[in-house]
Amino acid sequence: MSEVAGRMSIQAGATSLEITNKGSGILLGGVPGVAPAKVVVLGGGVAGTNAVRVAIGMGAQVVVIEKSIERLYHLDLQFGSKITTVYSTIDAIEEHVTTADLVIGAVLIPGGSAPKLVTRNMVSQMRQGSVMVDISIDQGGCFETSKPTTHKQPTYIVDGVVHYCVSNMPGAVPRTSTFALNNATLPFVLSLANYGYKQAMKQDGHLLNGLNVCKGKLTHRAVASALHQEYIPAEVAIG
Amino acid sequence: MSEVAGRMSIQAGATSLEITNKGSGILLGGVPGVAPAKVVVLGGGVAGTNAVRVAIGMGAQVVVIEKSIERLYHLDLQFGSKITTVYSTIDAIEEHVTTADLVIGAVLIPGGSAPKLVTRNMVSQMRQGSVMVDISIDQGGCFETSKPTTHKQPTYIVDGVVHYCVSNMPGAVPRTSTFALNNATLPFVLSLANYGYKQAMKQDGHLLNGLNVCKGKLTHRAVASALHQEYIPAEVAIG
Amino acid sequence: MSEVAGRMSIQAGATSLEITNKGSGILLGGVPGVAPAKVVVLGGGVAGTNAVRVAIGMGAQVVVIEKSIERLYHLDLQFGSKITTVYSTIDAIEEHVTTADLVIGAVLIPGGSAPKLVTRNMVSQMRQGSVMVDISIDQGGCFETSKPTTHKQPTYIVDGVVHYCVSNMPGAVPRTSTFALNNATLPFVLSLANYGYKQAMKQDGHLLNGLNVCKGKLTHRAVASALHQEYIPAEVAIG
Amino acid sequence: MSEVAGRMSIQAGATSLEITNKGSGILLGGVPGVAPAKVVVLGGGVAGTNAVRVAIGMGAQVVVIEKSIERLYHLDLQFGSKITTVYSTIDAIEEHVTTADLVIGAVLIPGGSAPKLVTRNMVSQMRQGSVMVDISIDQGGCFETSKPTTHKQPTYIVDGVVHYCVSNMPGAVPRTSTFALNNATLPFVLSLANYGYKQAMKQDGHLLNGLNVCKGKLTHRAVASALHQEYIPAEVAIG
Amino acid sequence: MSEVAGRMSIQAGATSLEITNKGSGILLGGVPGVAPAKVVVLGGGVAGTNAVRVAIGMGAQVVVIEKSIERLYHLDLQFGSKITTVYSTIDAIEEHVTTADLVIGAVLIPGGSAPKLVTRNMVSQMRQGSVMVDISIDQGGCFETSKPTTHKQPTYIVDGVVHYCVSNMPGAVPRTSTFALNNATLPFVLSLANYGYKQAMKQDGHLLNGLNVCKGKLTHRAVASALHQEYIPAEVAIG
Amino acid sequence: MSEVAGRMSIQAGATSLEITNKGSGILLGGVPGVAPAKVVVLGGGVAGTNAVRVAIGMGAQVVVIEKSIERLYHLDLQFGSKITTVYSTIDAIEEHVTTADLVIGAVLIPGGSAPKLVTRNMVSQMRQGSVMVDISIDQGGCFETSKPTTHKQPTYIVDGVVHYCVSNMPGAVPRTSTFALNNATLPFVLSLANYGYKQAMKQDGHLLNGLNVCKGKLTHRAVASALHQEYIPAEVAIG
Lengths: 239, 239, 239, 239, 239, 239
What we know:
6 copies of one chain form a homohexamer. Chain A is an alpha/beta fold. Chain A folds into 2 domains: 2-172, Rossmann fold; 185-237, no CATH class. Chain A is 41% helix and 15% strand. The first copy, chain A, has 9 helices and 9 strands. Chain A has helices at residues 2-16, 46-57, 69-79, 90-97, 120-125, 174-203, 205-209, 221-227, 234-237, and strands at residues 38-42, 61-66, 83-87, 102-105, 131-134, 155-158, 161-164, 213-214, 217-218. Chain A has a 7-stranded mixed beta sheet with strand order 3-2-1-4-5-7-6, sandwiched between helices. A two-stranded antiparallel ribbon of chain A has the order 8-9. In chain A, a hairpin with a 2-residue loop joins strand 6 (155-158) and strand 7 (161-164). The longest helix of chain A is centred in the C-terminal third of the chain and has 30 residues, at 174-203. The first copy, chain A, is elongated, with a radius of gyration of 20 Å. The mean pLDDT of chain A is 93.
């Protein structure tokens, strides 16, 4: 699903930049002689990498901000001159976010809540009509000004900046998302059907890692921590 | 402006494919393991080439249909394995349009009216929720089912197929379009201001070619022909 | 050797498609205005990836079918718009194989026998003169209709479909294959020469993994299983 | 047809390099750690450019020798680091041909006979099992050692070097060639059918240029010159 | 020679940016996580295009400023997301030059003197240690602060900005430049040797265009104009 | 720092090849029609890979020599037709080094001393004015003829071959290197500041691995071995 959300985020951002949607009216790729939009992607994981690919493909000027040196190395090797990779510091985020036409929040932490990387103060310094898309909204969002929206009313404005924070972004493209989900889950479904949940989880660590709740207990450490509940290891809970 | 319209057409098409916009809910680029959308671009001129670039960039499977062998050669040299080039025949158009997720009409004939390449019959054979974007709507459109729309209400449905036929597509991204227009027209404006219209047009054949009406006479052959009016050569009309 | 076989498979397939070799007479890359051949590669491992690269390089339209989500992700990241990645299901295989001009069987399972992914029924639905190349023929082949052939008489016809199933494909290009083999085996040869087989295998797990037979016992689990023989762990057998 | 022949020439060359076809047994693209074959393309026009593309695509090390500075400039801009462009001199041809694994003769001069760029002496210095493919064989060939062959018996050996000189190379892939020919000739056929040959040729300079013989007179200067016959301008001959 | 100078300009600029050469100590390509240098190329002709290619190749962030819409279109098509193309206005030059790490002056006007696109005032606003390379120095240079230097002492400092203005840049790489010059001039030399200067020039308009002085008269309009001398058409002067 | 050194090595090599620096006067990328320089990179790790990228970017013909089959595979997948990958043997090194215009020594062995891959004898067979850059000079260098130099006097000549062996190459571009170093070390600095050295090292194996000396004992095996000193495991030394 991160791939779907990452790819859709740029499409949603490009549309939100249209003036009819209260955006600044800039075309992501510009045209020859007219500079393209500046797209800043926060986070270079799966969602961020997919956002980067589409943003490059639409002709934008792309900056990725990421804190893992190893991820930065791979992004640089993969995309070379087509992007600028920046090590994540508060200063770097402020410098690039406040001059961006489109900011993509792609900081996903499995099970946990996303850190608030972009402050209200940064938002207020952005150009009127710039756009922010928060992919991590399901985990609380990584912009201080984020709050969940729906496909029906996908955007709202804070300090003149358009916010797109749809919780279920892949829901807009079910023909793609459903197949993606099937492909990812089918092996687990087969295993559960063939062996029952206990045996299936014992055989497959990935499946076991996916167990969040069992017999009323929280069995996923990050979830338990985010909800301030007691944590029981999955292997203990299933007995 | 053809470049702006060409690039925007894919963005508009991708958005129209979202299920909330009555599209089929397919993501243009698919995801790994799930096939991308099939985009068919009719016409490989400036508008078509720009549409092709963005469609590739967003990960779609792209087919260009064009009748000039030379244009096909250059498109193939430019994009290689990333696209399929097809020589334009009625059969080829029918085969590819009826299996497309997104069709871009980019057949622009300077001054004249666009040929109706896609018939109502072809439209009726397309999958429900597929999308057609007609860039040549200002010249009457190249789909039999096209009629002009506005950014306020950009789409309508015919036989379950979403039609996006906004007459002034670049109007959605004025920050880009205005600069593009300035760049393209500034040399002519300077020349007109410095020399007056007669002298300026005598010095510059491109400017002369752009003269459509002069002293009540139509001085552009294609326009005159499209409107069934008498044609007077521009050099004669300006005296 | 998988790299040699993977690269050669497309060359062999392209040649088999020539009408003088009873192929359908399609050029892999087409030409501008004439669609390229559709190449379907079953398996996205080393052999499959190398087949994909050459197929793209020759201008074909390429589809890779693979069951590992992670491999699909890497193939998509590597080749982007140049290929279509498809998650492996019986339906997907049938859909793509029956419409292919060239099918490459690149499903290699170390030591084991290849699964029969393409049935006789699918073959019978293919266009006359289409071509199938089975790289996994040494492991029994992954097409139901595969049987080993030689470079002297490399192809045979089933239901009008040309089959190329040469067991020792790299044997056609010994100047490349020999060096490749030398490079891959030299470190092991040096180790065996310097330390003797027992000590060499104790020092190097890779070498130990390569031991198939020792003192009359089968020491490779997959081989033993494929031949229905008893399996003795390699470390036990060498004493 | 130059595009078909250019693309096929590399495929034919790669197959001829197989040891079973008396080639040196080198794989065009090599494998990681084993150097690829050196392919030298004589002539950077349409046929040569298409040969270059496929040779790059199959992973070969490619050298193009061409005498037009402008063509060299475009080839360099198009292919960059993937090829070496060399200005055509006798020395350069000798240096590169004698160290090549595969030489493609792609020197086509409309209507005229091809210059003999590669001498028998150069051929005799090549490595045993190297391969030469002469696309310009229809115009007499550009190797001193070329003589026409057929798809039935496509190659012969001179000084240990395999020669592939099939006159009608596109004949091996009729499904592609026929469509290509149709696309290229259809507009002329329509014009001839609608207007008759005289009127059609008067309207279309390209068609007129294609007239070789009219009322028993040679109306193509290069053909007349190659055959030592009198030349009558086409517009004179048709009256 | 424009190609040599264009490619060398980036190499010279990169070296001048080293701190030991009084540059600001930035690496053109940056490293993952550290932003690359900003390179601004003034002029998108042959020299500029070659500078752009090497700058991209070394990993810089590249902006090209050019006044021809058509050149901008081709640069955009060629390099896509790897560069930003900007229409040339005084404002655009000032904005980009004053924020650049390296500025390449590649405005070559055949025979004429280069316009002073960069003023002293702009130079004084640049960061200390930034670098300017003036390829058009042979025509007077396109920076107000340019004055010719030699390979022995290639740079000087104005307002803290390093200027590299070597008149004969290709002289540093004679092994490449000499061959390039030979290739470009050989056909003319052969023609002059075979036919004498009068006949050779009558046969070849390119050669005639190259005539600057004949029998004491200036026969090149731009040169005559730049030197405020009388101009005699070349065809008149040679008689 | 390997990335900085790898990228700078090509820039330093290109400059050293200028005739004013006693190089052979070849331009790395050649020009259309004139062959580029041959660059041989010994070692395909991080430093080597970065050197390869810049060398390709500047248009050179690149050969990488590496002894890990897996690294060769990844280099081939990454760079394809743009480089030649060669398995490292004494013969291969001799063949390629003696015909190179520029040799980059990028064989870095953590903590140990670099092997002398290029002998004096090979150097003496190189063309006059060729250039060698030794990135591994801090570990003693991988050319028999290497000795450390400084940015003030970066090169010296052996047998007519220019040697560039600056120990602290990144020192020339401190604006880039300092940020790179900060990014790489900041997490460790924070951890040391927050927890003290003992606790920090216990929490983070990477930090522990970086410990070379502790309480007068050598705690890095390769360093101890290179200096013929006793080795104490880091975890023992810190107590």
